[in-house]
Amino acid sequence: MPKVPPSAPPSADHSHNATDQAILAAAEGILHEKLQRQGCIGNPMDAADFLRMRMGALPHEEFHVLWLDNRHRILDCQRLFTGTVDGASVYPREVVRAALGINASAAIFAHNHPSGVAEPSAADRAITKELRDALSLVGVRVLDHLVVGAECVSMAGRGLL
């Protein structure tokens, strides 16, 4: 029977990254369960901790939507778009399709800024308005758009919705 050479031990970097990923996944799971136990979103910032854990450390932009029913109970949190280090293309048609597919009545948008600076850009404000207008045609209210960085900035809280 041929001898199989022992596999090389994982590098310290690889096992460290795997451990970090496992810890972040566990934390996200705990925050997701807490959010689900709340049952509904009374304030869009109720979701901020969960979204910060889910997106805050990503090296690229992602656009997520927290879909809610008419009593603001959580239906789902979907990652709809993934981008690069400084942007993600967001398509209103696909957001409307996702809303109709899950039968949502309300939405909270969230995207991250890998730079850590959570200040909403002019492009963030423009896509939020475009999405709000598109979703209003099918009866879905946009409650907020959270920009996730070192902190979470609520565009509704800033009067930008």
Automatic annotation (TrEMBL):
Protein name: DNA repair protein
GO biological process: proteolysis
Coiled coil: none
Pfam family, one: RadC
Keywords: Hydrolase, Metal-binding, Metalloprotease, Protease, Zinc
Protein species of origin: Rhodanobacter denitrificans
GO molecular function, a single term: metal ion binding
Gene3D superfamilies hit by this protein: Cytidine Deaminase, domain 2
UniProt domain MPN: residue ranges: 40-161
Domain of life: Bacteria
